[in-house]
Write a structure and sequence with these properties.
456 residues; alpha+beta; Helix Hairpins; five-stranded antiparallel sheet; three-stranded antiparallel sheet; 8 strands; 58% helix; Pre-mRNA-splicing_ERAD; J domain-containing protein; J_dom_sf
Length: 456
């Protein structure tokens, strides 16, 4: 006989996955006789055969088993981790990728610049020299003001937009542990016997006895001397179990379900020329078993009572489990919220540090322009750069007149622009309109002087 293969129920019985129910019963009988210890087999092999038979003859359990062991489709290529890493490395090694994105934001020096978008790209870029950012001096001036506002204590990051027991178990009843407890109870009840107790077919001197258990009900056959006959009885009891469970699931009461199953089993055995089985029953719940009896009315009453107790206990367990899961979920959510808050705070601090570093770099670039063009390191308050014939080749005063910003006349030196600011501010004491008229007069005078200068 070929050795049994662990895990494959069809191979255990020696049938194909598309085998019919009669083929499975025939294979079980053949393999059970071959693996039973009384026929020279091993108890472990016999138990594997019994387990395979009980699962494959149950339509629901067989369907779940087939779904779990469905062969996976072949030749389906998935991107490996190595491929993903190689792609990431390739992107990282492209020296123009980050710079390209950065320069694109400032391709036209005099165009309107999205400083928030530029900041986002600079913070997200790797190894990008801020000095390579192509911004005009005017835009450097505006970008510097934007960065200062981003590092103010009251600034809000959020406003900046820069945040970036299983249903399908192979079970005959709702509580698999109860089934396992029954099987353990059947074995422990036979420990006094000299021979090894086997699931499904047991030796009880002076013969063999078949038994099954389901939903807190045990069913036992009469004793026979022939192992072949005992295996036949076990097959009948397994079919009885399946039929009764199907009836209960359909909503039939315990008595009618059991009565229908017994009548069906008797008819099948009679048609096959097999002897009528003399059955005894008992119930079990939480380790307690009732005495075996042939009284169907009594056993059904005990059985219904055990099922009711089990249902109540199951509801209590589910409610307890629900409360525990709720508490666990609340604790998990609390920890997750704390982790997110800590991460957000850490990210905010890191972001502020990067912005401050970036601000210093931009300020240094701006100061270099001021020193080279106007021989000063910073502009006095109220002055700003302006462009006439070139990039930031002038400086002018800036005043607030009639609720709007007004730029004073363009000057070639900081000294002249400072004098404009001082004098126009003094005139503003007499009214915005007075200061505005003087500002326009000076602006016309300055433009005339510039044009005359260019005509020379």
């Amino acid at each position: 006989m070929p050795p049994l293969t662990d895990g494959d129920l069809y191979s255990t019985l020696g049938v194909s996955p598309c085998a019919s129910d009669p083929e499975i019963r025939s294979a079980y009988k053949r393999r059970a006789l071959a693996t039973h210890p009384d026929k020279g087999g091993l108890a472990e092999d016999f138990l594997q055969v019994v387990s395979a038979f009980e699962i494959l003859t149950d339509t629901a359990r067989r369907r779940v088993y087939d779904q779990r062991h469905k062969p996976k489709p072949k030749h389906k290529r998935k991107e490996s981790k190595a491929d993903a890493k190689a792609q990431a490395k390739s992107d990282a090694q492209d020296p123009t990728s980050d710079a390209r994105a950065t320069h694109a934001a400032a391709a036209k020096p005099e165009a309107q610049v999205d400083f928030r978008g530029l900041l986002r790209k600079l913070l997200g870029a790797k190894k990008v020299d801020v000095k390579r950012v192509e911004l005009s001096a005017l835009h450097l001036q505006e970008f510097l003001g934007f960065l200062k506002s981003e590092t103010e204590p009251g600034h809000c990051d959020a406003e900046s937009g820069l945040e970036e027991d299983s249903e399908d178990m192979l079970a005959l009843c709702d509580d698999v542990s109860e089934e396992a407890a029954h099987e353990k109870a059947v074995e422990s009840s036979q420990k006094h016997a000299a021979r090894t107790t086997l699931r499904g077919v047991n030796w009880r001197s002076p013969g063999y006895m078949a038994s099954v258990g389901f939903r807190h009900l045990n069913v036992y056959s009469h004793l026979v001397h022939d192992l072949d006959a005992a295996i036949d009885m076990h097959i009948s009891l397994v079919r009885l179990r399946q039929g009764v469970c199907d009836q209960l699931i359909a909503g039939i009461d315990h008595y009618q379900a059991l009565r229908h199953g017994l009548d069906t089993m008797d008819a099948e055995r009679r048609a096959a020329g097999l002897v009528k089985m003399r059955l005894r029953f008992n119930t079990y719940y939480r380790g307690k078993k009732t005495p075996r009896t042939q009284d169907l009315d009594e056993v059904v009453r005990q059985w219904a009572n055990a099922e009711q107790q089990f249902a109540q206990a199951q509801l209590a367990r589910k409610e307890k489990k629900r409360k525990l899961e709720q508490i666990r979920a609340e604790l998990t959510q609390q920890k997750q919220t704390e982790r997110e808050h800590q991460k957000k705070e850490k990210d905010r601090q890191v972001r502020q540090q990067h912005i401050e570093q970036l601000r210093r770099w931009v300020e240094e670039m701006f100061q270099q322009h001021l020193r080279s063009r106007f021989q000063v390191s910073e502009l006095p308050e109220g002055l700003r750069l302006a462009s006439f014939q070139g990039d930031a080749d002038c400086v002018c005063a800036q005043l607030h007149l009639h609720g709007a910003k007004q730029l004073g006349p363009y000057r070639r030196s900081v000294k002249e622009a400072s004098r404009d600011l001082l004098q126009l501010s003094a005139l503003q004491q007499r009214g915005d309109e007075v200061a505005l008229r003087e500002l326009r007069r000076r602006d016309t005078e300055a433009m005339t002087a510039f044009f005359m200068e260019t005509m020379k």
